[in-house]
Amino acid sequence: MAKVSPFKFLQEVRSETEKVTWPTRRETAITTLMVFVMSASAAIFFLLADQVIRFGVTLVLGIGR
Question: Which first-to-last residue range defines the signal peptide (predicted)?
């Protein structure tokens, strides 16, 4: 593997970052909102699943009261 000077490396990094298509502020906001919505949905789903399982175990085994 060839050695690359730190200066050359930083030039190449800068060159590559200029080629990236960065998301717009609106796209970032929408994506962030979707992450929060999906996280809340998953939390609610697992809360409900936990409550149903707890109810079933309590009903069948009579424990967890």
Answer: none
